[in-house]
Design brief:
alpha+beta; two-stranded antiparallel ribbon
């Protein structure tokens, strides 16, 4: 059983900290459907251009439905401040918890930590040495475990069995 989102968010704070000015977590996991943001919009929802752009609250991730998202708190670049006029800091998506078929996956700590550590390694802030060489574990088994946590088993049958919505009928050979 995976940890609750609250527990995962607490672990993210414990490992990666909070913003010293606002006290907000540097990383967080949220439900994509619940996230909104205030954005300067030139068009209505129906596609009609307005005479004057207006700040409206809109869905942040209209392209992500019914899944969790790992977000990182970042400074809104100067070039985007006109589009996001009400904030100087914004949570931006790092990872959507889904498999290759866009089926939602539950957030798991080991996969989440790997994603954040990889991001920091790409920024030159951290090393991935612990993921590359670990004499205590079999390298192939560890990679397979992380791949499964990140991408899931990508068949409809295995997903149904994993989420306890499928039935396995053993194949019997009759003589």
């Amino acid at each position: 059983m995976s940890e609750s989102i609250e527990a995962l968010n607490k672990r993210l704070i414990d490992h990666y900290g909070i913003d010293s000015d606002t006290g907000r977590a540097i990383f967080r996991i949220t439900w994509a459907n619940d996230e909104t943001e205030k954005r300067l919009m030139a068009f209505t929802d129906g596609g009609i251009e307005m005479l004057y752009p207006a700040v409206r609250e809109v869905k942040k991730y209209p392209y992500l439905k019914d899944l969790y998202v790992l977000e990182r708190l970042v400074v809104v670049p100067e070039i985007n401040r006109e589009e996001l006029p009400t904030q100087k800091l914004s949570y931006e998506p790092v990872w959507a918890y889904r498999d290759a078929n866009n089926n939602p996956l539950p957030p798991i700590w080991d996969a989440t930590k790997l994603i954040v550590d990889t991001l920091y390694a790409a920024l030159g802030k951290k090393s991935l040495r612990n993921y590359i060489k670990n004499p205590e574990e079999d390298k192939e088994a560890r990679i397979a475990k992380l791949q499964n946590e990140l991408f899931g088993n990508e068949t409809d049958v295995s997903d149904a069995l994993t989420y306890k919505s499928g039935i396995l009928v053993p194949n019997k050979e009759f003589k």
